[in-house]
Task: inverse folding
């Protein structure tokens, strides 16, 4: 029980921490890293659930989420490269041609 | 025959197809038979006492309480179709001359065909769902035709005003169609559909709001004067004779529902009387011929609303018929003047045209006489029917309407004098020749304006024919003191009105005029809208912040909300 | 609702084929399009013949895909050689939407959403112009944040129930929080305020043919997923969902009122329609049925509007410039589409609104309904602004632009829905 | 096979501290290193929670692939030096919103913590158990197969995006 609560609390903190990072960071790569933190928080819950509920499905799901995270990192970093490669400032707030 | 009449909304389709694809060389010619067929069938139905009939295709719109495709022809629909057929036939012929050479003439007739079809559908609709199609369809074509002359400034804004006002009515009617209990929506038995949330008062309120938007009553009057930005034949057909009267038609058709809620009926009466007086006063202040007539339409529609409020739907429909004749006539006569002056609509540029345009002047006189209620003209009979009903229920309101008769005489006299007899402006002007296609359509309308009141005599009278649809209607007698007073006041007003000078120093104001609350509301909504748009400022950081906050807020709301 | 496995397999195979043959197909883009269309047709066929599935979803997705693919020749890419890849990505986006809508467990929904949003970002990014990658990146970042909400929500549900299936047992706080988080994640894909930012920019900056596909497919997938999940979180949450929808509709209607550029305006309109969808989804079983009807009809209409704009270039297009930029077919298509979006009967957009407000009235009562109706009818003012000009500029002799087949198909679909709305309504099934 | 609390708590603390470093470090390269540490801590936590296979997956996919990918991209992007500092107002807003999210999560979950019963867990985490979950029909087989289109998207995306940024407009 204490382990469950500890991990649950950790994952909650991790999720909120990652979200704060996404909001604070201006480097697109750092933003993507903070998103990875948030994904880890979710994955932690799946693994915890597998243990607490005695169902391997949670672990299997965690593996699939890892794959999702990898796919997402590939596309996200590719987009960041396309957008920021030729810019002087690597700042996610700077490109804002689309607005209004 | 009834079956054919039920499908009359399709009569203009051949003309639409042949005309807009260019299969018929002369623009507009292919469209003429449609309205004439509607007129002929409707008159034959009314005279030959056709049988009421209904056409029903079930299961069309399974998602509304009553989703049948239901058409119904009864005396009221046939009467409305007759009015529509007659006025539109005249307007079609008139438009052949009025828009000759205009590059958009094919488009004009295409819209006109769609309008006549939608209006026919509106008056033959058997349930709310079908009614909505016609209802919104006429509003849409009205918008397209108001904004017809794209290169003239202000036409789009005027059209959007019409859309905005119509939207209020459409919204109310949409709500009415969806809030009734399942299976309900048949216009003939709507009064039995009051079981839903809100019940009869809600249904009545929605219907009155919808009708007042369509018929430019109360605060929603603003779009009708602006609608004068459209071509004059449109002002005659859509914005005087038929579409704006659809609100009155709706109220008459659903009167049994209104009657369940006395407050709604009373509110309709007050709304009508106030608008009748307001429109009359506003008409007196106009420097533009068409806008003067437009406010007159607002005022006359107020009379019809008052009639509904007095519990006399027959009187309202009777006046609707009279008004269709004389107001269409007035607009078409005004159109002749405007055509001769190459599009000039300002009263200041007119005057002294009586000799040059005698046919237009005579037509204007006939229309004016019927409008202010010269005894034995159509307007006299129908106004008398309204006043009679009013004195039985609300004498104060009826007296106000009698005062309104004086004002009617005044504004129409003023417009008449300023157009035809006032001293002409100093600079010499060249009058365009007026083709006979502009003159002949005035004749049937003029005859109607003067003699429609006698429609009571054959076949036991119009009231008898319409009785199954509207309940008993007493028409007339010019013997009632109220009618006599009103008639003489109207004549007096007309004489006074001719003495009323249009100030020449008032320069031409661009259409559409700026109105108090509408203009304010539109600027405020644009400012608010721009504020909202500015929130989307393009900064990814803010977006992420808002997104995360959104997640937190949704979580909190579902936990504590 | 069952995943149409064979349809999904067909779509993936088609995408794999097109991507694998990208080299030879680069020189014959028409073949890539044909292959894609055939794939979509095969997927639709399979779905109709697999018992237990809801063919409507697959068929709607197939229609959106076919229109988008047929617009291929008009699609404006930054790199003209990438047409086969775009075909493959479009098919994969369709796959994602179908999985998101019909997935058999919660994890499948997440994979579907991720497939859809990744391919959407890429479709947006490949468009011409400087703003395309910017919008794609924003859309991606916000989609990724939403994905984390989905995964976290899934984790909470799993800790609570020990299962990845749609939960059916008693509603514990963990389960409820998880369901709320997951629904909120899907609400991003639906583009509800305040999660609409990325979608708004993506729809604006993408090449119109891609924008139409992205929008129609993501709305389709997301609303079905929400309609399946939200009720499990309890009646109070449905109310929250409906209120968020109302806020979205009002917000986006106001935003659209301020626009002078047609694509931005349509992007706002897409957000507003998402709001109506959410209102319906929060209004009980009847409302959910109406929501699915609405999304199919709206998707077809949106495809038509975007099809009409396809190939006009990445620069902003003022509403006033439209008449001179469009030929006869495109003008007619745009008029038809805008009038349908505005809810003019008898066009299908109007049927959708009629279907919507009855259940909303029953579930939410008068005030939200009246506000919703007001937003719906007020929208007519901005949708119809270009229409008189478009009618006035119809020219029979205008040149035929490329990609017209897509416009024709979309127009036919809208006309069929006009005359026979019941073919959609009768096939919704229970959600 | 239940792990004692202290190692779990230690791993949790390490994961949180390294996550803080990811969020707070003002150079992207340091954040990558912190992410690597975080990933290792999480993998340790998985191992302690009887999820050996996931731990290995975390090491291989996260530490091995994703973190390296981040490293490459940091190297490819223009050297901006220190990241632009956020304005104080924005930092405050971000922290407040982050705390709000935490509070919302807590508010949503807290009432359930008391009643959170943990089953007398049967043994989980065996490779064959997880394998059966992934590859048995009726379990996660379809989800597993559905990762194929997802990976296909990622592959096509990587290729097309690279060509897009290479190509002249």
Result:
């Amino acid at each position: 029980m204490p382990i469950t609560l500890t991990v649950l609390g950790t994952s909650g903190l991790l999720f909120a921490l990652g979200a704060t990072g996404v909001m604070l960071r201006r480097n697109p790569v750092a933003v993507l890293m903070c998103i990875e933190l948030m994904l880890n928080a979710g994955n932690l819950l799946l693994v915890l659930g597998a243990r607490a509920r005695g169902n391997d499905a949670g672990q299997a799901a965690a593996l699939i989420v890892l794959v999702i995270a990898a796919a997402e990192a590939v596309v996200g970093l590719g987009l960041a490269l396309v957008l920021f490669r030729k810019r002087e400032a690597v700042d996610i707030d700077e490109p804002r041609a689309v607005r209004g | 025959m009834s079956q054919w009449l039920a499908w009359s909304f399709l009569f203009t389709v051949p003309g639409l197809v042949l005309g807009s694809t260019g299969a018929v060389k002369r623009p507009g010619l292919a469209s003429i038979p449609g309205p004439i067929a509607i007129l002929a069938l409707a008159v034959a139905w009314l005279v030959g006492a056709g049988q009421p009939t209904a056409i029903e295709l079930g299961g069309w719109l399974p998602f509304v309480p009553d989703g049948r495709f239901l058409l119904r022809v009864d005396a009221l629909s046939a009467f409305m179709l007759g009015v529509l057929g007659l006025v539109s036939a005249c307007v079609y012929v008139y438009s052949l001359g009025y828009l000759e050479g205009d590059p958009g003439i094919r488009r004009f007739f295409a819209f006109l065909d769609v309008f006549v079809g939608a209006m026919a559908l509106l008056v033959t609709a058997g349930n709310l769902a079908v009614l909505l199609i016609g209802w919104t369809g006429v509003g849409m074509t009205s918008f397209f035709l108001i904004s017809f002359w794209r290169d003239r400034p202000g036409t789009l804004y005027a059209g959007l005003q019409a859309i905005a006002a119509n939207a209020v009515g459409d919204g109310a009617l949409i709500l009415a169609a969806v809030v009734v209990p399942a299976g309900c929506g048949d216009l003939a038995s709507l009064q039995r559909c009051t079981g839903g949330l809100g019940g009869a008062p809600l249904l009545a309120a929605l219907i009155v709001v919808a009708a007042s938007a369509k018929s430019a009553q109360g605060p929603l009057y603003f779009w009708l004067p602006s609608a004068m930005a459209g071509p004059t034949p449109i002002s005659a057909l859509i914005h005087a004779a038929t579409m704006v009267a659809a609100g009155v038609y709706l109220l008459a058709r659903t009167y049994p529902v209104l009657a369940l809620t006395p407050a709604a009926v009373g509110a309709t009466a007050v709304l009508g009387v106030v608008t009748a007086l307001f429109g009359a006063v506003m008409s007196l202040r106009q420097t533009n011929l068409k806008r003067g007539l437009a406010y007159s339409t607002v005022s006359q529609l107020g009379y019809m609303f008052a009639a509904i409020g007095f519990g006399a739907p027959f009187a309202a429909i009777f006046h609707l018929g009279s008004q269709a004749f004389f107001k269409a006539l007035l607009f078409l006569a005004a159109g002749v003047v405007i055509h001769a002056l190459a599009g000039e609509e300002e009263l200041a540029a007119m005057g002294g045209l009586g000799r040059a345009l005698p046919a237009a002047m005579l037509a204007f006189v006939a229309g004016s006489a019927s409008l202010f209620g010269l005894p034995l003209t159509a307007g006299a009979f129908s106004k008398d029917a309204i006043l009679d009903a009013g004195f039985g229920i609300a004498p104060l309101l009826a007296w106000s309407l009698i005062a309104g008769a004086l004002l009617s005489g005044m504004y129409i006299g003023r417009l008449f004098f300023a157009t035809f007899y006032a001293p002409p402006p100093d600079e010499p002007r060249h009058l365009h020749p007026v083709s006979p296609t502009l003159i002949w359509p005035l004749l049937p309308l003029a005859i109607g304006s003067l003699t429609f009141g006698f429609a009571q005599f054959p076949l036991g009278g119009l009231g008898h024919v319409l009785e199954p649809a509207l309940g008993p209607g007493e028409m007339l007698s010019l013997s009632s003191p109220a009618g006599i007073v009103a008639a003489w006041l109207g004549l007096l007003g007309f004489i006074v009105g001719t003495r009323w000078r249009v100030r020449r120093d008032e320069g031409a104001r661009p259409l559409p005029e700026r109105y108090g609350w509408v203009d304010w509301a539109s600027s405020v909504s644009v400012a608010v809208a721009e504020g909202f748009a500015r929130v989307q400022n393009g900064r990814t950081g803010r977006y992420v912040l808002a997104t995360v906050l959104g997640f937190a807020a949704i979580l909190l709301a579902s936990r504590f909300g | 609702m069952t995943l149409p496995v064979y349809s999904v397999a067909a779509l993936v195979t088609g995408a794999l084929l097109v991507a694998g043959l990208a080299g030879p197909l680069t020189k014959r883009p028409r073949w890539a399009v044909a292959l894609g269309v055939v794939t979509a047709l095969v997927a639709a066929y399979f779905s109709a013949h697999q018992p237990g599935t809801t063919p409507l979803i697959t068929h709607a997705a197939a229609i959106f895909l076919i229109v988008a693919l047929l617009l291929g020749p008009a699609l404006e890419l930054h790199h003209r050689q990438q047409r086969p890849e775009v075909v493959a990505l479009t098919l994969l986006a369709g796959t994602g939407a179908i999985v998101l809508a019909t997935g058999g467990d919660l994890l499948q929904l997440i994979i579907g959403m991720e497939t859809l949003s990744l391919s959407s970002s890429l479709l947006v990014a490949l468009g011409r112009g400087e703003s395309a990658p910017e919008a794609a990146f924003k859309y991606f970042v916000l989609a990724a944040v939403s994905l984390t909400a989905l995964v976290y929500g899934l984790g909470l549900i799993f800790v609570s129930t020990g299962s990845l299936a749609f939960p059916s047992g008693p509603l514990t706080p963990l389960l409820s929080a998880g369901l709320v988080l997951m629904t909120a994640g899907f609400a991003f894909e639906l583009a509800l305020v305040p999660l609409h930012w990325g979608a708004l920019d993506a729809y604006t900056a993408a090449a119109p043919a891609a924008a139409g596909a992205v929008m129609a497919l993501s709305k389709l997938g997301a609303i079905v997923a929400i309609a399946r999940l939200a009720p499990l979180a309890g009646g109070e949450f449905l109310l929250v969902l409906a209120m968020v929808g109302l806020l979205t509709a009002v917000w986006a209607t106001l935003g659209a009122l301020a626009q002078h550029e047609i694509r931005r305006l349509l992007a706002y309109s897409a957000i507003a329609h998402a709001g109506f969808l959410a209102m319906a989804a929060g209004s009980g079983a009847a409302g959910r049925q109406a929501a699915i009807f609405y999304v199919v009809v709206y998707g077809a209409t949106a495809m038509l509007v975007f099809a009409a704009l396809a190939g006009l270039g990445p620069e902003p297009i003022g509403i006033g410039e439209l008449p001179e930029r469009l030929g006869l077919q495109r003008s007619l298509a745009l008029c038809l589409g805008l009038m349908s979006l505005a809810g003019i009967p008898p066009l299908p957009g109007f049927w959708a609104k009629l279907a919507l407000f009855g259940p909303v009235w029953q579930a939410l009562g008068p005030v939200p309904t009246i506000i919703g109706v007001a937003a719906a009818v007020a929208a007519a003012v901005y949708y119809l602004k270009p229409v008189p000009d478009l009618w006035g500029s119809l020219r029979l002799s205008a040149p035929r632009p490329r990609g017209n087949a897509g416009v024709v198909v979309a127009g036919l679909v809208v006309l069929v829905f006009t005359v026979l709305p019941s073919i959609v309504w009768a096939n919704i099934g229970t959600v | 096979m239940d792990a004692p609390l202290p190692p779990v708590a230690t791993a949790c603390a390490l994961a949180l501290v390294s996550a803080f470093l990811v969020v707070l470090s003002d150079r992207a390269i340091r954040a990558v290193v912190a992410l690597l540490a975080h990933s290792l801590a999480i993998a340790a936590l998985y191992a302690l929670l009887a999820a050996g296979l996931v731990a290995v997956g975390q090491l291989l996919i996260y530490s091995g692939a994703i973190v390296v990918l981040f490293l490459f991209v940091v190297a490819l992007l223009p050297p901006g030096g220190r990241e632009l500092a956020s304005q104080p107002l924005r930092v405050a807003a971000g922290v407040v919103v982050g705390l709000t999210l935490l509070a919302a999560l807590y508010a949503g979950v807290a009432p359930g913590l008391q009643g959170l019963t943990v089953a007398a867990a049967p043994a989980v985490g065996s490779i064959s158990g997880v394998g059966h979950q992934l590859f048995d029909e009726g379990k996660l087989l379809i989800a597993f197969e559905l990762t194929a289109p997802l990976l296909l998207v990622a592959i096509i995306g990587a290729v097309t995006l690279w060509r897009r940024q290479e190509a002249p407009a």
Remarks:
- Residues 2-84 of chain A form a domain with the Helix Hairpins fold (CATH 1.10.287.3510).
- Chain A has a mean pLDDT of 91.
- The helical segments of chain A are 2-24, 28-53, 57-84.
- Chain A touches chain C through 46 residues (CB under 8 Å).
